[in-house]
Amino acid sequence: MADRPVRGSRTGRPIMALLDLLGRRWTLRILWELRDGALTARALRSACDDASPTVLQARLAELRAAGLVEHAAGRGYGLSEEGREFLTAFMPLYAFAERWAASKPTTPG
Fold first, then answer.
1. Which residues share a beta bridge with 66?
2. Does the global pTM surpass 0.85?
3. CATH class of 26-101
4. Where along the chain do its domains lie?
5. For residues 55 and 27, is the Cβ–Cβ distance under 8 A?
6. For the chain, where are the alpha helices, taking DSSP H only?
7. For every one of its 109 residues, what pLDDT tens digit does the chain have, with 9 covering 90 and above?
8. Do residues 37 and 83 lie in contact, with contact meaning Cβ atoms separated by under 8 Å?
9. Interatomic CA distance for residues 78 and 69, integer angstroms
10. Containing H/E element for 79?
11. For the CA atoms of the chain, what is the radius of gyration?
């Protein structure tokens, strides 16, 4: 069974669309900030203090289109069920990548 084309992906493949989305600045930070509960756009801007409101709104729109984030009036933005599953599955790999990037490679002397 062939994969359906995915809007927003350069290749049309779902996994590549997800990687494209994750490669955009602030995407993972937004998901991480939403892990404990819903936040307003203002609270997210405070948590992501280097992001402009325009960039955050663009990332939130992409995350909503991907089905990872929901928006409820009066409650703010929160993770969808798929977003929670994704974060649970992805964060060990993300934590490993962060540790690996922080370690200094040894050079042969």
1. none
2. no
3. mainly alpha
4. 26-101
5. no
6. 14-22, 27-33, 41-47, 53-65, 81-102
7. 344 444 544 555 666 777 778 778 888 888 888 988 999 988 998 888 878 889 899 999 999 998 999 998 888 999 999 999 988 888 787 777 777 777 866 555 5
8. no
9. 6
10. strand 76-79
11. 16
